[in-house]
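Lecture notes, unit on protein representations.

Consider one protein chain, 289 amino acids long.
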Amino acid sequence: MPPDKYSALWTSHTSISDFLKCPQSYFLKHIYRHPGTNHKIKLMTPSLALGSAVHEVLESLSVLPREKRFSEPIMEKFDSAWAKVSGRRGGFFDKDTEFRYETRGRAMMRRVTENPGPIARLAVKIQKDLPYFWLSEEDNIILCGKIDWLEYLPETDSVHIIDFKTGKGEEDAESLQLPIYHLLVHHCQHRRVEKASYWYLEREDTLTDKALPDIAQAREKILAVARQMKLARQLDRLRCPEESGCQACRPLAAVVRGEAELVGTDEYGYDTYVLAYSAATDEKASVVL
């Protein structure tokens, strides 16, 4: 009998990262549903709003043939994306803060326009809305996720994994993002993965090359964490190790207590909330996208 994807545990870079930071944060982001709406909840911050708008623009380019990617001014695309997160919907409680974040986003769009690099070259698009594969049929675990960009390398008929970074900080050296992306690309399309890079759009005109993780070691490492997640769910052990909550789970716990403002429902059916963060707090607590 083929495995049942509807009963499987679906894991991703985001869910795995949340679980490793704090099991309660993972529960609140990926399992908990608001009792009034039966919707999952999401907390929007200015940094997440910035990342969302920039990624929306770049994803819209990824589905186009390379000769058509800049036929529409990229700044017009950004204006449309920014309108979706403007004001309280993006966690902005004053115009000055929003102006600073929007200015950063516009600078990233100018950088891509003036130094398109891989954006102007051939690309591979995985033909799935959400790429996924069976990490372990025996354990009933699926790994899923979207890759920002796959550059096609015609000389070797291979692909180059590229992840866009919109935050100010460096990606954690212990991050499981590249091992997860290597597994996904390896299993969800047929070309060999030749290399991987980050593009720090805040400050760099060119890509930062990263060592490509070993595929077997990556699977072993990710599966070990996924099994921990599955066991924690089965035993209902998804609590914060800190008695008063930690930086990862405390903001969403405030949402559950009714201390946040509901600003709408996103395209995936999540109830979206905002808290009155200062810009400094948000930047410190934000994640690199």
